[in-house]
Description:
Elements: H1 7-17, E1 21-25, H2 26-39, E2 45-50, H3 57-66, E3 69-72, H4 75-83, E4 91-94, H5 100-109, E5 112-115, H6 118-128, E6 134-139, E7 161-162, H7 166-176, E8 180-184, H8 194-207, E9 216-218, H9 236-248, E10 259-262, H10 266-269, E11 273-284, E12 289-293, H11 302-306, E13 312-314, E14 322-328, E15 336-344, E16 351-355, E17 375-380, E18 383-388, H12 393-397
Parallel strand pairs: 1-17, 2-3, 2-10, 3-4, 4-5, 5-6, 6-7, 6-8, 8-9, 9-10, 12-14
Antiparallel strand pairs: 1-11, 11-12, 11-16, 13-16, 14-15, 17-18
Amino acid sequence: MSQSISNQYLNELGEQFGTPLYIYHGEKIREQWLKLKQAFSGNNTVFFYACKALTNINILKYIRSLGANIDCSSIYEGRLALHAGFAPNQILYTSNGISFSEIEEAKNLGLIINIDSLSNLKKFGQKFGSSYPVGVRLRPNIMAGGNLKISTGHDKSKFGIPVTQIDQVLEIVRQYGLLVHDLHIHTGSEIKDAHIFVKGIEVLFDIVPQFNDLKFIDLGGGFKVSYKQGDIETDISLLASEVGKAFASHPNPGGRPLQVWFEPGKFLVSESGYFLTTVNVVKETPGACFVSVDSGFNHLIRPMFYDAYHHIDNISNPEGPFRKYTVVGNICETDTFAWDREINEVREEDHLVFRNAGAYGFEMSSNFNSRLRPAEVLVLDGRPQLIRKRETFQDLLRNQLEVL
Ligand SMILES: *Cc1c(COP(=O)(O)O)cnc(C)c1O
């Protein structure tokens, strides 16, 4: 049975820690991890947790304890990963549009580096030549992903070096004797169809023969999870067998077997997360019945930013009759979480829980409207522990210099 936290327990956590509150369920992360490990057990595959989904240091430590490596999108994520105990050679820094000095810093820390522009690749060659292996992030010109904002592999996307410029990549590699040990693509988030990954493999294997030092093929992340009933999620077993077949039919021309890398973010942590809020106001109007909770897009931006669906339950009145509500926040900006959503009858001070809040939830939160960011709790072995304090008024002033 799938791991989850009961409504009653969520209510208790709300009483104990207050709201708004992010709650993560360790065993659910482990369940997702085991799904990946089991599906790919026959393949030579390594998983790097794409930590931009959720970087609480305890989550990083927990995911490390499961046996994952880690993928970072900034030097600070790399440093958090080191702090969490990952060895430098378990840390992949997949850069995009960063300064060369940050690439140098990653190199000095001993991280694995994927470079995503011709200019940085050239600078890397000039400075380090063949002394340090490097990966190349390519843009496969494949349209995939839940929506345009989370699609990264298409031909108008800023991410990676277009495969159509491969001759320029090869020229730089030749000129400086670069040791290219991996080729990387990440086509987007919420990719339902396992065959998209196979398409990516096809694109990569067209150019693989031109790289003599390859050891790894990095297919990025983007596995989809289910946000509502009936949602399709990426079929991980199918993906594993398709990837296995694709690699079997494209042996590395160099003879050495290539290892496959994946960078799952959302898949590991999304469903482990619950965002718990309290209803401030129920406002009946002729157009809609608005429910305002003690939060807004300053805490959970996905509905406004991506039109993302988060399932909402009234855990204080689970037997109440269903009614239609427009669930909104308390900030001075339109911050709708859900339009015309059927929810058990809502009363002021009820707890509403947003499901699938583990990925890109707290991580994308802000202090907009000078409101405080939520606390975070990790539930592991049946024990809840506070893993981030709720902010205080002092936090709003902490880095400000009062010169007047
Ligand atoms: C964001 C990102 C991921 C993870 O994407 P998910 O949709 O969360 O799985 C993987 N790789 C790279 C390079 C990313 O930027």
